[in-house]
Amino acid sequence: MDILGVQSLEVQCIGGGESHLYGTEEMSFYFRNGFNNFNFCFVLALLFVAILPIAKKKYAPDLVIVVSPVFIWLAFMSLQAHKEERFLYPIYPLICIAATAVIDSFPDLFRDQFATDESLIVKIAKGFRPLFLGFILCASHSRTFSVLNGYSAPLQIYKHLEHHEEIGTGSLLCVGSTKAAPPYFNNKNKAAEGQYLEDIGACDLLIELDLKRQHPARGSDLSTWETLAAIPFLDRERSPATYRSFFIPYKWQEKNVFGLYKLLRRLPRSN
User: Fold this and answer.
1) What are the recorded GO MF terms, alphabetically (predicted)?
2) Which residue has better confidence, 25 or 141?
3) What are the sequence ranges of the domains in the chain?
4) Can you give the pTM of this predicted structure?
5) What is the pLDDT of residues 72-97, one digit of tens each?
Protein backbone atom coordinates (compact mmCIF):
# COMPACT_ATOMS: atom_id res chain seq x y z
CA MET A 1 0.00 0.00 0.00
CA ASP A 2 1.45 3.40 -0.98
CA ILE A 3 1.71 6.47 1.26
CA LEU A 4 -1.53 7.93 -0.11
CA GLY A 5 -3.38 4.71 0.66
CA VAL A 6 -2.02 4.64 4.22
CA GLN A 7 -3.08 8.26 4.75
CA SER A 8 -6.55 7.53 3.38
CA LEU A 9 -6.90 4.56 5.74
CA GLU A 10 -5.79 6.71 8.67
CA VAL A 11 -8.09 9.62 7.82
CA GLN A 12 -11.18 7.67 6.86
CA CYS A 13 -11.12 4.63 9.12
CA ILE A 14 -8.81 5.09 12.09
CA GLY A 15 -9.98 8.60 12.90
CA GLY A 16 -6.95 10.61 11.84
CA GLY A 17 -9.11 13.09 9.96
CA GLU A 18 -12.13 15.15 10.91
CA SER A 19 -14.75 13.75 8.56
CA HIS A 20 -16.79 12.73 11.62
CA LEU A 21 -17.64 16.40 12.08
CA TYR A 22 -20.06 16.07 9.16
CA GLY A 23 -22.13 13.37 10.89
CA THR A 24 -21.70 9.72 11.75
CA GLU A 25 -23.72 6.60 10.95
CA GLU A 26 -23.88 3.08 12.31
CA MET A 27 -22.24 0.09 10.61
CA SER A 28 -25.44 -0.99 8.88
CA PHE A 29 -25.77 2.31 6.96
CA TYR A 30 -24.38 1.08 3.63
CA PHE A 31 -26.41 -2.12 3.75
CA ARG A 32 -29.63 -0.18 4.34
CA ASN A 33 -28.64 2.36 1.72
CA GLY A 34 -27.68 -0.37 -0.74
CA PHE A 35 -31.09 -1.98 -0.38
CA ASN A 36 -32.83 1.37 -0.87
CA ASN A 37 -31.02 1.99 -4.14
CA PHE A 38 -30.76 -1.56 -5.52
CA ASN A 39 -33.51 -3.36 -3.57
CA PHE A 40 -33.25 -7.13 -4.10
CA CYS A 41 -30.46 -6.67 -6.63
CA PHE A 42 -28.22 -5.68 -3.70
CA VAL A 43 -29.27 -8.76 -1.72
CA LEU A 44 -28.45 -10.99 -4.69
CA ALA A 45 -25.07 -9.30 -5.07
CA LEU A 46 -24.21 -10.17 -1.48
CA LEU A 47 -25.27 -13.77 -2.16
CA PHE A 48 -22.51 -14.03 -4.75
CA VAL A 49 -20.39 -15.61 -2.02
CA ALA A 50 -22.92 -18.46 -1.79
CA ILE A 51 -22.52 -19.36 -5.48
CA LEU A 52 -18.74 -19.01 -5.42
CA PRO A 53 -18.09 -22.70 -6.25
CA ILE A 54 -20.41 -22.45 -9.27
CA ALA A 55 -19.00 -19.08 -10.32
CA LYS A 56 -15.44 -20.40 -10.36
CA LYS A 57 -16.41 -23.19 -12.75
CA LYS A 58 -18.87 -21.28 -14.89
CA TYR A 59 -17.19 -17.90 -15.25
CA ALA A 60 -13.55 -18.76 -14.52
CA PRO A 61 -11.67 -16.99 -11.71
CA ASP A 62 -11.80 -13.67 -13.58
CA LEU A 63 -15.34 -12.85 -12.45
CA VAL A 64 -14.45 -13.51 -8.82
CA ILE A 65 -11.63 -10.98 -9.14
CA VAL A 66 -13.96 -8.45 -10.76
CA VAL A 67 -16.68 -8.78 -8.11
CA SER A 68 -14.44 -9.00 -5.02
CA PRO A 69 -14.11 -5.17 -4.67
CA VAL A 70 -17.81 -5.06 -3.71
CA PHE A 71 -17.07 -6.82 -0.43
CA ILE A 72 -13.70 -5.15 0.14
CA TRP A 73 -15.16 -1.69 -0.46
CA LEU A 74 -18.19 -2.31 1.77
CA ALA A 75 -15.97 -3.50 4.61
CA PHE A 76 -13.50 -0.62 4.19
CA MET A 77 -16.14 2.11 4.00
CA SER A 78 -18.21 0.66 6.83
CA LEU A 79 -15.25 1.28 9.15
CA GLN A 80 -15.64 5.02 8.63
CA ALA A 81 -17.60 6.94 11.20
CA HIS A 82 -18.77 9.38 8.52
CA LYS A 83 -20.75 7.67 5.76
CA GLU A 84 -22.37 8.98 2.60
CA GLU A 85 -24.21 7.30 -0.24
CA ARG A 86 -21.78 8.71 -2.82
CA PHE A 87 -18.94 6.71 -1.30
CA LEU A 88 -20.50 3.58 -2.83
CA TYR A 89 -20.63 4.97 -6.38
CA PRO A 90 -17.39 3.21 -7.47
CA ILE A 91 -18.90 -0.25 -6.87
CA TYR A 92 -22.39 0.38 -8.27
CA PRO A 93 -21.60 -1.36 -11.61
CA LEU A 94 -20.02 -4.30 -9.77
CA ILE A 95 -23.16 -4.76 -7.65
CA CYS A 96 -25.14 -5.22 -10.87
CA ILE A 97 -22.58 -7.69 -12.23
CA ALA A 98 -22.61 -9.76 -9.05
CA ALA A 99 -26.42 -9.85 -8.95
CA THR A 100 -26.56 -10.85 -12.62
CA ALA A 101 -24.18 -13.75 -12.00
CA VAL A 102 -26.35 -15.00 -9.13
CA ILE A 103 -29.55 -14.85 -11.21
CA ASP A 104 -27.86 -16.56 -14.14
CA SER A 105 -26.49 -19.32 -11.89
CA PHE A 106 -29.77 -19.96 -10.09
CA PRO A 107 -30.72 -23.03 -12.22
CA ASP A 108 -27.26 -24.52 -11.61
CA LEU A 109 -28.13 -24.92 -7.93
CA PHE A 110 -30.66 -27.59 -8.93
CA ARG A 111 -28.81 -29.18 -11.80
CA ASP A 112 -27.77 -32.82 -11.47
CA GLN A 113 -24.22 -33.01 -12.74
CA PHE A 114 -24.71 -36.62 -13.82
CA ALA A 115 -27.98 -36.08 -15.72
CA THR A 116 -27.98 -35.66 -19.48
CA ASP A 117 -31.38 -33.98 -19.72
CA GLU A 118 -32.51 -31.02 -17.68
CA SER A 119 -34.89 -31.89 -14.89
CA LEU A 120 -38.23 -30.19 -14.33
CA ILE A 121 -36.92 -28.22 -11.36
CA VAL A 122 -34.08 -26.79 -13.47
CA LYS A 123 -36.58 -25.66 -16.10
CA ILE A 124 -38.69 -24.05 -13.38
CA ALA A 125 -35.60 -22.32 -11.98
CA LYS A 126 -34.85 -20.93 -15.45
CA GLY A 127 -38.39 -19.62 -15.64
CA PHE A 128 -37.93 -17.76 -12.38
CA ARG A 129 -35.03 -15.70 -13.75
CA PRO A 130 -37.17 -13.26 -15.77
CA LEU A 131 -39.56 -13.05 -12.82
CA PHE A 132 -36.68 -11.99 -10.57
CA LEU A 133 -35.62 -9.36 -13.08
CA GLY A 134 -39.17 -8.08 -13.42
CA PHE A 135 -39.57 -7.84 -9.66
CA ILE A 136 -36.30 -5.92 -9.32
CA LEU A 137 -37.37 -3.59 -12.14
CA CYS A 138 -40.71 -2.86 -10.47
CA ALA A 139 -39.02 -2.16 -7.12
CA SER A 140 -36.52 0.14 -8.86
CA HIS A 141 -39.32 2.13 -10.50
CA SER A 142 -41.02 2.35 -7.12
CA ARG A 143 -37.87 3.77 -5.54
CA THR A 144 -37.35 6.25 -8.39
CA PHE A 145 -40.93 7.49 -8.15
CA SER A 146 -40.61 7.98 -4.39
CA VAL A 147 -37.37 9.96 -4.68
CA LEU A 148 -38.54 12.17 -7.55
CA ASN A 149 -41.91 12.98 -6.03
CA GLY A 150 -40.72 13.22 -2.45
CA TYR A 151 -37.51 15.23 -2.72
CA SER A 152 -37.44 17.15 -6.02
CA ALA A 153 -38.99 20.32 -4.57
CA PRO A 154 -35.60 22.10 -4.02
CA LEU A 155 -34.96 21.82 -7.77
CA GLN A 156 -38.49 22.55 -8.92
CA ILE A 157 -39.01 25.65 -6.79
CA TYR A 158 -36.45 27.73 -8.70
CA LYS A 159 -38.30 27.19 -11.98
CA HIS A 160 -41.08 29.40 -10.66
CA LEU A 161 -38.78 32.43 -10.65
CA GLU A 162 -39.00 32.70 -14.43
CA HIS A 163 -42.75 33.27 -14.21
CA HIS A 164 -42.31 36.54 -12.31
CA GLU A 165 -40.86 39.24 -14.52
CA GLU A 166 -40.65 41.73 -11.66
CA ILE A 167 -37.91 39.59 -10.11
CA GLY A 168 -34.60 40.59 -11.59
CA THR A 169 -31.28 42.30 -11.01
CA GLY A 170 -31.08 43.82 -7.57
CA SER A 171 -33.44 41.37 -5.89
CA LEU A 172 -31.96 39.54 -2.92
CA LEU A 173 -32.89 35.86 -2.72
CA CYS A 174 -32.41 34.21 0.66
CA VAL A 175 -32.49 30.46 1.25
CA GLY A 176 -33.74 29.38 4.66
CA SER A 177 -31.72 31.17 7.31
CA THR A 178 -28.55 31.53 5.23
CA LYS A 179 -27.45 33.57 2.27
CA ALA A 180 -27.42 31.74 -1.04
CA ALA A 181 -23.65 32.20 -1.43
CA PRO A 182 -21.53 32.04 1.76
CA PRO A 183 -18.18 33.85 1.36
CA TYR A 184 -16.09 30.74 2.00
CA PHE A 185 -16.13 27.16 3.23
CA ASN A 186 -13.77 25.23 5.50
CA ASN A 187 -12.91 21.63 6.37
CA LYS A 188 -13.76 22.00 10.07
CA ASN A 189 -17.53 22.19 9.58
CA LYS A 190 -17.47 25.58 11.27
CA ALA A 191 -19.89 28.37 10.46
CA ALA A 192 -18.37 30.92 8.11
CA GLU A 193 -18.32 34.54 9.16
CA GLY A 194 -21.22 36.30 7.52
CA GLN A 195 -22.82 33.03 6.42
CA TYR A 196 -25.92 33.48 8.51
CA LEU A 197 -28.37 36.18 7.62
CA GLU A 198 -28.92 38.38 10.64
CA ASP A 199 -31.53 40.68 9.12
CA ILE A 200 -34.19 38.85 7.12
CA GLY A 201 -35.65 42.25 6.37
CA ALA A 202 -32.99 42.65 3.68
CA CYS A 203 -34.49 39.79 1.66
CA ASP A 204 -36.82 40.44 -1.25
CA LEU A 205 -37.42 36.72 -1.82
CA LEU A 206 -37.21 33.78 0.53
CA ILE A 207 -37.00 30.06 -0.19
CA GLU A 208 -37.87 28.06 2.89
CA LEU A 209 -38.83 24.54 3.91
CA ASP A 210 -41.81 24.48 6.24
CA LEU A 211 -42.04 21.12 8.05
CA LYS A 212 -44.58 22.25 10.64
CA ARG A 213 -42.24 22.02 13.59
CA GLN A 214 -42.58 23.62 17.01
CA HIS A 215 -41.03 26.91 15.92
CA PRO A 216 -42.93 28.74 13.16
CA ALA A 217 -41.27 29.19 9.78
CA ARG A 218 -39.89 32.62 8.95
CA GLY A 219 -42.30 32.95 6.06
CA SER A 220 -45.37 32.17 8.16
CA ASP A 221 -45.96 35.88 8.76
CA LEU A 222 -48.65 36.54 6.14
CA SER A 223 -48.50 40.27 6.79
CA THR A 224 -44.91 40.30 5.50
CA TRP A 225 -44.68 37.48 2.95
CA GLU A 226 -46.82 36.16 0.14
CA THR A 227 -46.43 32.66 -1.26
CA LEU A 228 -45.52 32.52 -4.94
CA ALA A 229 -45.14 28.73 -5.06
CA ALA A 230 -45.39 25.80 -2.65
CA ILE A 231 -44.28 22.26 -3.50
CA PRO A 232 -44.74 19.20 -1.25
CA PHE A 233 -41.54 17.86 0.32
CA LEU A 234 -41.44 14.50 2.08
CA ASP A 235 -40.82 14.79 5.82
CA ARG A 236 -38.30 12.02 6.42
CA GLU A 237 -38.43 12.15 10.21
CA ARG A 238 -42.20 11.74 10.42
CA SER A 239 -42.69 9.24 7.59
CA PRO A 240 -42.34 5.44 8.03
CA ALA A 241 -39.18 4.04 6.42
CA THR A 242 -41.05 1.48 4.30
CA TYR A 243 -43.47 3.96 2.77
CA ARG A 244 -41.00 6.80 2.24
CA SER A 245 -38.37 4.56 0.61
CA PHE A 246 -40.62 2.91 -1.96
CA PHE A 247 -43.79 4.04 -3.67
CA ILE A 248 -46.64 1.73 -2.71
CA PRO A 249 -49.87 2.53 -4.58
CA TYR A 250 -52.61 4.10 -2.44
CA LYS A 251 -50.30 4.07 0.60
CA TRP A 252 -47.43 6.41 -0.32
CA GLN A 253 -49.50 9.58 -0.09
CA GLU A 254 -51.62 8.29 2.79
CA LYS A 255 -48.87 7.07 5.13
CA ASN A 256 -46.19 9.69 4.52
CA VAL A 257 -46.06 13.19 6.00
CA PHE A 258 -45.21 16.18 3.81
CA GLY A 259 -43.98 19.68 4.43
CA LEU A 260 -43.97 22.53 1.92
CA TYR A 261 -41.00 23.95 0.05
CA LYS A 262 -42.00 27.57 -0.50
CA LEU A 263 -40.97 30.49 -2.66
CA LEU A 264 -42.02 33.65 -0.83
CA ARG A 265 -41.97 37.31 -1.84
CA ARG A 266 -41.89 40.21 0.56
CA LEU A 267 -45.00 42.32 0.42
CA PRO A 268 -44.49 46.01 -0.39
CA ARG A 269 -43.62 47.93 2.73
CA SER A 270 -46.26 50.39 3.81
CA ASN A 271 -45.08 53.97 4.24
Assistant:
1) alpha-1,2-mannosyltransferase activity
2) 141
3) 3-147, 153-266
4) 0.74
5) 999 988 888 888 888 899 999 999 99
